[in-house]
Design brief:
The protein is an alpha/beta fold. The protein contains twelve helices and eight strands. The protein is elongated and about 70 Å long. Bound molecules: NADP nicotinamide-adenine-dinucleotide phosphate.
Length: about 270
């Protein structure tokens, strides 16, 4: 499959790296990237072809075109490509841009899939939500899934609005985890550990607990109860968290992120 990347920044690089690691052919990947330094890095690191601007013959040769530019650059990038599009599958990972807006910028093209990855994709531990235009067939969905699957897990959404919820959960989610890690590291240092020791304790605990929860048959609530004996140390910590309504605050925060994602979709989809 020939894939033409539009944008070779962080996410573009992560996807190129993931696809090559999975055995994709080097000469099947081309990246359009205006920044010369970024192009040189892509060529040195991955040995793939890069170009400063999308030429019509490259678009015509592509089976799949992947937009990995910032959302605010997508309209111009899409409009420039529109005259050269035929039946290619177009996959966009630009946060917030809805398929109806992308389709309009692409001159009515409908073979579209939208995806929302997250930053752990950079180490191939991401999870991406995907939504396909109803006109995309199973083969098209499989192609999109294979691309995002090269950098982590994938989850299809039945409705496009669910991508706002995906954005709030897994898109912004790494920041919630980093926030928790910051608190744990701060506490560790207050309790007398060096910064390196506190980081090690926090990362191993968060990673280990997440891995245990993912493997266990029990829910996180049951796993938590199992380490919380009455009158013990964990009970003292959880009582304080409950008293300060920390869980409720997290739930409200994720709701706020989803509402903001929907708002951003309205703003980013404008033509002006
Ligand atoms: N990073 C994440 O965790 C994450 C998660 C989910 C979704 N996303 C989405 O992924 C997309 C890419 O994010 P990123 O972090 O990879 O951004 P990035 O590092 O800024 O990469 C975007 C690249 O596209 C280039 N570009 C701009 N206009 C272009 C055009 N017309 N044609 C070709 N290339 C062009 C930019 O070059 P210049 O720098 O010269 O402008 C830049 O190198 C964004 O839409 C973002 O919403 C990212």
């Amino acid at each position: 499959m020939n894939v033409l990347f539009i944008g070779g920044g962080n996410m573009g690089r992560a996807l190129v790296g993931g696809l090559l690691a999975q055995g994709s052919a080097r000469d099947g990947l081309v990246v359009v990237e205006p920044d010369a330094a970024a192009r040189a890095r892509l060529e040195t690191d991955f040995g793939i072809r890069t170009v400063p601007a999308a030429a019509g013959d490259l678009v015509a040769r592509a089976d799949l075109i992947l937009f990995a530019v910032k959302p605010q650059h997508l309209r111009l990038a899409a409009c420039a490509l529109a005259p050269h599009l035929a039946g290619q599958l177009v996959l966009s990972i630009a946060a917030g841009i809805r398929l109806a807006d992308l389709s309009r910028w692409l001159g009515g093209h409908q073979r579209l899939v939208r995806a929302m990855p997250n930053t752990p994709a950079l180490i191939r531990r991401g999870i991406s939500g995907l939504f396909a235009h109803p006109s995309v067939d199973d083969a098209g969905r499989k192609s999109a899934e294979d691309i995002l699957g090269a950098v982590g897990e994938t989850m299809w959404c039945a409705r496009e609005e669910q991508l706002d919820a995906i954005t709030a959960m897994s898109g912004s989610g790494p920041a919630y985890v980093f926030y928790f890690l910051e608190a744990m590291i701060e506490a560790g240092q207050e309790l007398g550990f060096s910064p390196a020791q506190a980081r090690r304790l926090a990362y191993a605990t968060a990673g280990g607990a997440a891995a245990l929860a993912a493997q266990a048959a029990e829910s996180p609530a049951v796993l938590r109860a199992q380490v919380t004996s009455k009158g013990g140390t964990t009970a003292a910590a959880i009582a304080l968290l409950e008293e300060r309504a920390v869980k409720a605050a997290f739930v409200a925060a994720i709701r706020a992120a989803a509402a903001r994602a929907a708002q951003l979709g309205d703003e980013l989809g404008k033509d002006g």
